[in-house]
Amino acid sequence: MAKINDVIITGKLKNLVFYERLGTLCVRTIPVNVRQTKGTKKNAKTFGQAAKIMKYLREGLLPVISPVKDTYTANRFNIAIHQWLKSADRNIGLSSINSFQFNEKANLADRLGFIPATDWTDPAIVRIHIPAIIPTKQIKAPKNTTHIHWTVIITGSKVEQPCLTSNLSILIDTVWNDELVPARTIEFPYRLNPDSINVVAMLMQYSVKCKMTTQRMDDKQWMASGIIAAKFKE
């Protein structure tokens, strides 16, 4: 706020308002009125809708997000959902969500060396196919790793009237060695609700040998967490 000395003036001059306050002449600017177009109003509405969807997806994905969650990640996820909502075809415009990383410091595909395949064709079951692997040869891990822990979750939210639709998870523990781990298929009894966005996410953590004990690492550099599949049901 500016102050005026030795000048007597009151009222409005363009975007300036002159007035007296406690015996002192002052001046302030008039707030600029921004006129929203139909486009800006629609974009604001879509962004608000994205925030609501993000809230429920984050709630469903909490076990794979909680070790790495922060406000910055939430904002990135909101933007990814907003981009998808604006896509011309929501069935094929899922790229912004499909490979979203909750932890930018540890890319899931880079740590795993592969991405599990998701089969959405069965109306009552979603299948996650994990290929046969030799852990020490295919999966990146810190020194003194003894076990790998995977948390796999499937969840969803309604789109036009956002709400959590369902939430299922499974924990997989794998010994860190050079022996072949057979391929396996995870089956989730999960139905795709009409007008819903559904995602499968994974968190990978490690147990390492530390002196005489084994403990789970809490170093975010190694906590890979991200979405491995997404599906929109009209």
Overview of the molecule:
The model has no long low-confidence stretch (mean pLDDT 88). Strand 5 and strand 6 form a beta hairpin. The strands form 3 sheets. Strands 7, 8, 10, 11 and 12 form a 5-stranded antiparallel beta sheet that branches. The protein has a 4-stranded antiparallel beta sheet with strand order 1-4-3-2, with no helix packed on it. The protein is of the alpha+beta class and 234 residues long. Helix content is 24%, strand content 37%. It has 6 helices and 12 strands.
Keywords:
alpha+beta, 5-stranded antiparallel beta sheet, 234 residues, 12 strands, 4-stranded antiparallel beta sheet
Q: How would you describe the shape?
A: elongated
Cα-atom Rg, whole angstroms? 26 Å
Unreliable segments of 5+ consecutive residues: none
Percent in strands: 35-45%
Number of helical regions: 6
Structural class: alpha+beta
State the total count of DSSP E strands.
12
Could you spell the SSE succession in H and E letters?
Answer: EEEEHHHHHEEHEEEEEE
Give the CA-CA distance, first to last residue: 54 Å
Average pLDDT rating? 88
Q: Describe the biggest sheet? A: 5 strands, antiparallel
Task: Please bin the fraction of helical residues.
Answer: 10-25%
